[in-house]
Each structure stands twice: as structure tokens, then as C-alpha cells.
Amino acid sequence: MIHAVVLLLLLPPLCLSAWVDPSTPPSQLTATSFLDSASYTLVMSDEFNTPGRSFSDGGDPTWTALDRHDDDISASGEGPLHFYNSSMVGTGGGWLNVSTGRGRTEWTEFDSVEQVYKTKKKDFKSGMVNSWNKFCFTGGIVEISAVMPGSPTTAGLWPAMWLLGNLGRATYEASTNKIWPWSFDECDRELQHAQEISACNSNGHWGLIPGRGRGATEIDILEIMPGAPGPLPSTEPPIERPYGAMTLQVAPGVPGNRPKSGAPPLPGNDGHNGFAPSPPQDWYEHLNYMGNTSINPFFYGTYLAETKPGEPVHRSKLEAFQADAVGAIHQLRAVHFQKAHKYRLEWQPGNGGRIDWFVEDTQPDARGRGEHEHDFTAAPTPAPKEEEDSESEDGDGGDGKKKKKKKKEDKHATPAPTPAPSPPPRVDTAATPPGWVHAFSIVDLSLKEATRAQIPDEPSYVIFNTAVSSTWGFPYDTPATCKKCYDCSDPACACALPPGFCDTLDAGKTSMLVDYVRVYQTDEHEKHVGQKHTLGCDPLDHPTREYIKGHEYLYMRSLPFIDKDPLKPIANGGGACSADSDCGITGSCSTLSKESFWSTSDARVCRCGDAGWTGPHCRSHAAGDDEPGAFDIVLNTSWFTSRIANLYLPLPVIVAFSVVAAVFAGAFVATLQKKRLSGGVYVGLTQAEMTPRYNLRGRP
């Protein structure tokens, strides 16, 4: 990493964003679009080279790892089986490690329906880390290098890399209710009640722009479905497990005559073949599936119905709406679970924009899993030279995407015979460089024609997580005698768990390993379709901070957890240490008594001796926005004060400044004493100095 920093200093000056990791290789400071060959500049990166970083709330300026259960659950009880624990996220060996394992978590929660406190439990713990309300971007290129967790042939894990609009906080369903996944900027009186921030709103409360529809659209860069081999019906070309789902989740959705889960959109029947005439099913046109990629016939979206008692949010019948999942599934192979592969999203936002997904072909020299993948103190290791995986391009696996919630749908059942789907449209892939597959693309026209929605233009943040859900790869046709439980240590629960799942957890390779994440943008807007790129969670044309500030309770945990604010301030040192080596690259370990005039404690804590590093153990790059956001501009001074709030001043400097200030104050008081009134005049002042220059009205 030191070499990379030195090379950065020797390069010609580039206006690098403060979000750029200093250890990013100089060769990666720019990127070329795979669509139009335009040059983009790096605006954010994290190489995860510093071991032992803390991602718990307040521990990192870019990322926050969650400590909470997952709200994404229906009244029927289907949904998450995990508890997100920040200890399951860390850095070591040059990886960001998002782990999953066995481990019961229990807590007491108030049941608003029965009006009693109940003990809740989860049998698995896992990690989610995201950059909500810290780092956001609108449009550009995001590239991630990662190794998928677990076994490619064992179901149960649900790893994902995705983007979500900053107005919604992932897993906090109170914040996403009627916000997710809207991308609709027209006033439609029939849809107005279902969209919390509608274009029909003529008043701009909370800093929002009047007449602009807002939401929190979801762009899934990749969601992984592992599992036992077997062909998937209704896919063209044929897809098996493991596969990666690439999806835009958007509202409003197609209102009627929708495709049925497990079957492709039917073309319609004019009655000449003896069957009753039927119109073609409504779905999106102008979608392009390339390489070994098919439409995802197992998940077309979610109907968010009127809620029932016991659900974490409330929606009336008038507020119910359809959300669509416009997606594809791309064939993966076992090597994606063994070596790092690159995944790229090119996103041109808003009206006239588009979204394109790219996947790297197998690379024999890619970094693979190693002995330090779970060691959060290990330094990065060089990429090992390993033999290329010998499996065919067809790979293994097969299954469909879960339906998120609310409207019950048998998404796994083999459908009745249907007419063979028409071959998906293909596009010219000549611009895609060797080693990459242009897997899927969506253009704005597709959304406009179907529902009048648009390609997302919301400031969005990055999320890495692995979930364990009864709706993702778990048995759905268990016998009536099967006990509905998910405890790996209870033999009676085995029938409700995927075969081999518990053994996979015990094997210890259930970590999603992220080598790096890099985001590129360009300010030459004429070089791309769609609207301009912006950096920050609170851009002037799509503000979010004032709205979040006015609705903080939606973005905080409910009881028994007690949050004073949605996010804690970033710690600048203060982590326990025994030596300087515990305090990052430039930090030092000292006693509290040396750090504070008021403390006599001999406890040793880290002191971040360089303003470029922060966190409790000074291991995080002090990233942040370069420009003020919309709310900062309203407050006028908050951006300046926030920049100096984390400014580090050594203790001797503080003491010296205090002494100088005391001396100055003493001299000032002494001067006033000399100028006290004596016989009706001030001593030391001339008559001219005492002559009033202004009358009572303030005029000369």
C-alpha cells in the first residue's frame, strides 16, 4: 500500500475525490465505459487493505455494519432467519469479509397486536455493511471484485451486492414503506396515495422540491442463488444453479395481465389453434439478455398489499401497489465461489438513461480464498497462481428468486407446459472488451412504455450482505409432519433446512470476500445518455438529508434497542490498545491521562496522529464529501463546522493555544482597567477619540 501512495504523489495532479482510497493502484484512477468508450474518473474506492477495521456504528466514515434483526418479514412469518451482527464484518488478508454462521440471538420485543412482550430469536447470525447516508452517488460505473460465499451446490445462503436510494434505509421497513422502490415523477391521482413523496405534492416540505416524485429504487448488481444441479424450466438459454440475479426493482408496476411466476411472458393466442383467444401478457419490451443469460421467470415483482395486524408498517387498501422486478439470471460456476471475479454496473440515470450489467469471465490468476480470509488482522497477500476451473460454461444449479413478501405465490413449482418463449433480443457486444460478458441491459424507453416509470435518478448507496431466509433456497414442500424450525443443532429441524446447509456453515467458508469496490463518474454529461452524474447523498436536485432529519424515528431501531440518532459520530481514536501497532499506520497508543486534562486513568487508547486516518483504531481512511450538500447550504455553516469537527490537534498544541488565549484575555482586561472613567473621562483616551461620531439615529 505504501508504494501505491508514493506513486499517487508522483502522478500529475488529479482532482481526486476525498472518497478515494489512497491505496488504490494508480492504473485504476480512470476507467473506460464498455458502452461508449468514454473516460471516467475514480470518485470512490475502498481496497480493504488495512486489516482490523471496525464497521460498527461510528467506527468508519464510509461504511456501517448493522446490529439488528431484519424487518423484511410478512405477517405469515416467512422471511429472515438471521440477525445482523457487526462482528460478522471485518477486514483481513486484503478482503472485506462478510460472514455467516450459526449462533442464536434472542431479544424481547413488544407485540402490538397481543399487547405483550415476547422473546424473539434467530438461529443464524450474518453481516450487512452499507454506506447509507455517508457515501452516495447518482450514475456512473461501479465495479466490484468478490468471491461468493459457501458452496455452489448447497442452497441456503443469499449473498447480494446492491444499490438502494438514500431515502430508504435497508432493513428499516418503516423508512422504506411507500418509498421503496418508486421511480415515478408524474402526478397520477390514482397512484398518489401509494407513493409517499408524489409529484402531486405541490408543497416542498423537508427540503424536497415541490412537484417532484421521489423514492428509493433498488438496483441489484448481483444476488446469488446456489443449490443442487438441475435444469430450470422456462429459461432461454437453459440456466442451472448457481446463478446470479441482476434486477431493477421499480414502482409503479405493470397493473394487470402480468406473467405468472415460473413461466415466461406469454405471447397471446388468436384462437386458431383451438384454444380460447387470449391477449399477450404485459411485460417490458427492449430488454436485452446476452451471453449465458435468461429472463428471470421466477420473480416478476411484489404486490405490497394492505397490511395486516402485526406487520411492522401500515398500508391501507388505497395505498397498496404493485412493484416490478425487471430482471435476468446469469449462469455462474463453481469458480465464482473460489476466486475473485469482477462485476460491473454502468448506470446512466433518469430520463433517457439506461442500466447495463457486466460479468467478468473466469480469470486463472484471480485471487482465491486463503488461510487468512477470517483473520481480521492479517495483511493482504499476493494473488495466488491457480489452475483455471475446468467446468463448462453451462455450470451447475437452478432455482428461482423468492417473492419478497405479502402476496403468496408458488414461485418454485414447475409450471404447466407453456409455449416455448421467443428467443430474447440480442445486442451488439463488440464494444465489450475481452474477458467480460455484457449480460443484461434496460433502457428508459422500456420503463416509460410499460408503466411511465423511469431509470432511477436517486442518490444511492452501496450494500454488501448475506441473508438467510426461508424464502430463498429453503424447502417449500415439506411434509405436514415436518417441524417448522431452523436450528441446526435440533435433529427435528433437519427437514426444514436445505440439505448440507448446516455442514456448509460448519466448514467455515461461508464468507463473501470483497477485494475492492470502485465507483467512476464523468462531468462531461454530453458523453453519455440520461441525466448528469452527481456525488453525495444530498445533491441539490435530489435532497435527502433534511427529510431524513425530520423523520429520524423511521431510520432508527425500535425497542429494545435505544438509538439517539440514526448514525453515531465517527470515532477519532479512543479504541483500546497495548502498543502503537494496534493504532493503524500513523496512530499511537497512549494513556487517557495524557489525552485528557481531566482524566487520571492509565487505560491505554489509540490517538490518531494524522488527520488522514480515523476510526477507533485509526485504520480507516478519513473519507468524506468534498462539497456541501443541499441541507448544508441551507444551514450555511454546517459544512465548514463539520470539516473542522474531526480536525486533530495534538495535546501540546491545545495547551499552548489555551495559554496564549489566557494571556491575551489578561492583557485585554488590564487595558480596560486603565481606561476606566476618571473624573468623567476615560484615562488614556484623547478628546477626539471620545467625540461621538454618530447621533442617536445612527447618522453622521
From TrEMBL:
Residue stretches making up the GH16 domain: 17-366
Pro residues compositional bias, start-end: 416-426
Gene3D superfamilies: 2.60.120.200
Keywords: Cell wall biogenesis/degradation, Glycoprotein, Membrane, Signal, Signal-anchor, Transmembrane, Transmembrane helix
Sequence ranges of Acidic residues compositional bias: 386-397
Keyword Glycoprotein: yes
Residues annotated as transmembrane: 647-670
Signal sequence range: 1-17
Entry-linked Pfam families: SKN1_KRE6_Sbg1
InterPro entries noted in UniProt: Beta-glucanase-like, ConA-like_dom_sf, Skn1/Kre6/Sbg1
Chain intervals for the UniProt region annotation (Disordered): 253-274, 364-433
Membrane-topology annotation of the record: Single-pass type II membrane protein
Intracellular or extracellular location(s): Membrane
Biased composition (Basic and acidic residues): 364-376
Family of this protein: Belongs to the SKN1/KRE6 family.
Protein name: GH16 domain-containing protein
Organismal lineage: Eukaryota, Sar, Stramenopiles, Ochrophyta, Bolidophyceae
